[in-house]
Protein: DYW domain-containing protein
Organism: Gossypium tomentosum
Amino acid sequence: MTSNSTAKTLVKTFLRTPHSLKTKFQAKQLLAQFLQTQPYSPSSTSILISVYSNFNLLHPSLFLFNSLNSPPLLAWKSIIKCYANSGHFLNSLTCFVQMRSFGIYPDPNMFPFVLKACVFLKNLRLGESIHGCVIRLGLDFDLFTGNALLNMYAKFQSLQPNGGHKVFAFNVFDGMPKCDELCGTSAQEKGASIIQLDRMTKVLEMMPKRDVVSWNTVIAGNAQNGMYEEALRMVREMGNANMKPDSFTLSSVLPIFAEYVDVIKGKEIHGYAIRHWFDSDCYIASSLIDMYANCARIEDSCSVFNLLSKRDDISWNSIIAACVQNGVFDEGLKLFRQMLTAEVKPRDVTFSSIMPACAYLTTLHLGKQLHGYIIRGGFNDNMFIASSLVDMYAKCGNIKAARWIFNQMEHHDMVSWTAIIMGYALHGHAHDALLLFKQMEMDGVKPNYVSFIAVFTACSHAGLTEEAWRYFNSMSRNHGIKPGLEHYAAMADLLGRAGKLEEAYEFIGSMHTASTGSIWSTLLSACRVHKNLELAEKVANEIYKVDPENVGAYVLMSNMYAAARRWKDAAKMRIFMKKKGIRKEPACSWIEVKNRVHTFISGDKSHPLYDRIFEALKDLLEQIEREGYIPDTNEDFHDVDEEQKKYIIFSHSERLALAFGIISTPAGTTIRIAKNIRVCVDCHTAIKLISKVVQREIIVRDNSRFHHFKDGKCSCRDYW
């Protein structure tokens, strides 16, 4: 047998069984042999086009297609498919229209690609026209065409939650019992659900045959559009049809329980996943991590992650986000480092997730490192990452860097505007914050719930009571935003700081929603600052009613009794706290020096450099006393003599951190300190004078705001 006849035989064999070709290289070789050995034939050319379309080889497919005078159906179907799979959606639809103009009837396998093109071109009207064509041609019985229609309507639907009953019955995954046993719903409820069926569900009901893909498409479409009850109903229907859920079903349903914060039902899904060997699937694992994190079960999130044998970028991003969202910031940073060590490349969502950890821990050095990585990775144009950087720099005390990044952004959305407004608010630059808010409105960005919290925070830190009332009233009147707990808390805080304690008390009492312990606590703190013990006792009683486990209320009342020299009442309060197991959170400050965070607790002598710190404090005390400093012992509530009180104040955590910063950094270096509670009056006075004698800028972030100390003055103007 000659080599030419062997080649002819081989080509004929491949044309009869085109699916035996496994690589693009083999497909290209077939074309070369075909052109050399085969006479022109529309049918064989069409087969070759279909081979190329399976490998998405667009240019060879077009070369062969254009050689046909009257392309048969297979050629049209193949080129339409190749265009769609190569991202040329308009060309795909154009070919379909041309084919119909020649009077050629499409077969069912063509419509999934045409409908895919409609989805990517976001042309619902055209998609509906194609749906009509499917029905007129009697091809709506086809499973793949039906699935493509379901996918199209799922992508296009923009539905609101239907407010249905929360009915959960996920034992369907294992037992497949009858519908009524499963759902526990009445015929009337089921009938009401059927009335509310959307187009996607109607397509599903009209399909004579459905597979797992059909059900998954409808379930995912409803879940992604907030139609949680409808999605759960479809899962139950899927079970009734004796169709077993797969990993895609589970990953679609788990976010629903994350939204509902229903860890019990989430665990049922987890159990089903383990029993059916889905738990090693990265998508399932990531959904489980998110679900547990949303239910504040971070330990379970970590367990799921640790049991994964293979971890992709999605699972890494999920566990990092889970840790940060649940306040486990150090663990989130640790996992981020492990992710880099594992050579998993961070994505934009990685940086958006990890940046709040730097912001909370005020680790400016690490934040700068991440910023450098973002620039090198080409992520700096991403709006979400830029907004995270604005927030991080602002919360790490560098509002100038935050503003610079904000100004470099090409476009500003609500998140970036709110980040910079809140940044200025926390730094005490109230007028700049309000100016930015007005500029945001002028740029056509509508304020939302969070942006008004930023505005009230700015007004609170500057005592702008009238402006705050104006914004509070306009929020609902002009913007249709109903005041929430955070807005009420911010307003109560503002009135309390301004000394309008009775007005704040009446304001909280007149709230449209039930008051909480945290809102009353803002007023209780104001009562302590303004030394109004009588009102404080009334406020404390309100806290005990709604939040009897509120530790801060007992501590504040104990301190206020001590400040009023009511030692018996103070002792009673402390005895009560001891019996209840209520412990006061120790005052703690931390400072970052040479890429390492050093933590100090009031009166703590454990630091290796304590002797040098103590000597530096003594030296600083002598210098500021020459500037007129007199210790204010009214802020110390211990029943001891004056000298001992002076020593206690002398060793407050922020002073220890400050002295350490001074002896550990070059002269002129800005010192940044974070504290977990409010800076006391005496320390505030002392740090103002220290900033003057050492000629340094000192930035202190307490639990409510930033204090910028420089040349003997503070940015808060002694209003905090």
Remarks:
- The first strand starts at residue 588 and ends at 593.
- The mean pLDDT is 85.
- The chain is about 65% helix and 5% strand.
